[in-house]
Design a protein that fits this description.
alpha/beta; seven-stranded mixed beta sheet; 10 helices; 20% strand; binds the ligand O=C(NCCCOCn1ccc2cnccc21)c1cc(-c2ccc(F)cc2)cc(O)c1O; binds magnesium ion
Length: 214
Amino acid sequence: TQSTRPQRLLGAVQKNATRGDPCSVVKAIDHFCRHKEWAMNVGDEKGCILDSVVSEINPATVLELGTYCGYSTVRIASRLPPHAKLITLEFNPDFAVIARQVIAWAGVEEKVQLVEGASGDWIPKMKEQFGIKTFDLVFLDHWKDRYLPDTKLMEECGLLRKGSVLLADNVICPGTPEYLEYVRNSPRYESRYFKSHLEYTKVEDGLEKSVFLG
Ligand SMILES: O=C(NCCCOCn1ccc2cnccc21)c1cc(-c2ccc(F)cc2)cc(O)c1O
Ligand SMILES: [Mg+2]
């Protein structure tokens, strides 16, 4: 039977990366996606911007919306301080199966809790289920039309504090126009655009970093 692209991506990790070495996992995925099959990882160029934002914040609590194969999960988790927690949410169970194996291969499973389900269902349950007070960093990388409603939901659920950072992928391609309009015009956010390219291509894309002002 035919394998899926995530399965082939996992194969490339298991063949080319060293167990317990997150950098080699990231490099193996980037090589696979650049030379074999494109896949919707944040990628190496935007990934460096993600890395710098994580290092700047040094977050104790991170929420990632959109795990896919775990590429950005590994990038973030490998830069977290000890005892920091990353909760990553994935809607597609087939993607989750692959992501768990990529996360384990990288050796960062201690810092990661992968949760399967929809953001609209899980965001209201974060506090009670995971003992989270607020998130220091949220990486938005799921359905582009959910960025805005989920941001409002996080505000309503008291999951953001003064200084919480939202970092959103794909604000140009595929694009998140309503979300951009909101964070750029709301007095409750200080927003900045990091121009880059769609992963593994020359197409423009970028990350929007928005600090919640409380
Ligand atoms: O679609 C994309 N990502 C989202 C996946 C589903 O996410 C669903 N999903 C994951 C948790 C989760 C929680 N609740 C609801 C839905 C939830 C996505 C797409 C592209 C892209 C760009 C150009 C193209 F020609 C084609 C595709 C690039 C990206 O970087 C992306 O991130
Ligand atoms: Mg993305």
